Amino acid sequence: MKRPHLVHFLAIVTDDSINIKASITMKENLMAQNLDLDIPTPKFPIQALRLLNAYQFTMKIIGVSKDQKEIYKKSFESDSFGNFNFKIPLTKDRESIEILQLYETKKKPGLELHLGTYIPLRIFSPKKIIICDFDKTLVDTKYSTTKEVYRSLTRSMEENPTVMSSVEILHRYIKRGHHPFILSASPHFYEDSMRDWLYKNNIFSAGIFLKDYRHFFSFLDGELTTKDLKLQGLYKLNHLLDILLMTGIPDELVLMGDNFESDPAIYLTLTKILREDIDPWVVWNDIKEQDIFQLKKKQNSQFLNKIYQLDNLLTRKRKESFGKKISIKIYIRKRFKEDVLIAPQSFEKQKKYLDMVEMYDGLYQKEFEKMMEERHAKSVKGADSTI
């Protein structure tokens, strides 16, 4: 027997709203079948291929205070893929919401099927965020051939080499109070496997944004087209804007990616949007001139709308901070030791942006441990010489 199942749920509280991103699918209810449940094991992406199916749902949200008092109740309709993306405006009463109870009410008329209970995430001031790519940045994955794609679907992420130098940077900023978000062009049905990997590497409460491949098969509702299978520019910049619209403009932003494809161009473009007071229409036209951002007619209007929303947030942020610039740092993993930054032509002479980029060696476990031992030995030697 199948029942609605929450794939993911992310709720972030800002100064004026509760921002929610969620996805629901239909899944076999193993408990109802009295099946023996094994000890949890790492998940394979192929086990989540049910997420290629598309369903529509109605999600009822109840906001509850610490003392279990019901403050807010409303139902929301998903898109045709079972995805939700909406804001709940904060009023004086709603500021006391501490818990969100979720129910699906469409699939079984007359029944409210409990999906889960969640505590919304609050990112306190000064607001610090780190957004990190996954493939080739945290994990050295390969999808070049049909064989490699099949292998990635039928084994856990743990079997791919972990880029320990990237994990160390991510851990360092999490300890400093930066909330992590993972942004990847991997298919959306990799989420469970990816979440397992993050937990194993002590990366918790990260918001995950993946490419929903169902959009490529939809003639009406798809936000992505076949060109976006290979070109990552629009997809990644689009989700970077989604993250910032959910969290609000941060005081400190760290971006992590690799030098294999288009991460430097995407991150530098976002940096320019955030650091300069430019009319959204000018920003939009500059973006369209770059090869990695190819926009269809429908994508044009959606993307431009997000840029205007972000501009409104930036205007408010500049007034509140008296014009203080957002602190931005970009880390780009090298492909090889002598690798140099691949920057778009429009940024080649803009040193103020290129100086925000730091290239680093993408080291695996043994190489990373050797590097850390060498660092430790140098620090001990330096300490001894001062005695």
Automatic annotation (TrEMBL):
<dbReference type="Pfam" id="PF09949">
    <property type="entry name" value="APP1_cat"/>
</dbReference>
<dbReference type="InterPro" id="IPR023214">
    <property type="entry name" value="HAD_sf"/>
</dbReference>
<feature type="domain" description="Phosphatidate phosphatase APP1 catalytic">
    <location>
        <begin position="130"/>
        <end position="272"/>
    </location>
</feature>
<dbReference type="InterPro" id="IPR036412">
    <property type="entry name" value="HAD-like_sf"/>
</dbReference>
<dbReference type="InterPro" id="IPR019236">
    <property type="entry name" value="APP1_cat"/>
</dbReference>
<protein>
    <submittedName>
        <fullName>Phosphatase domain-containing protein</fullName>
    </submittedName>
</protein>
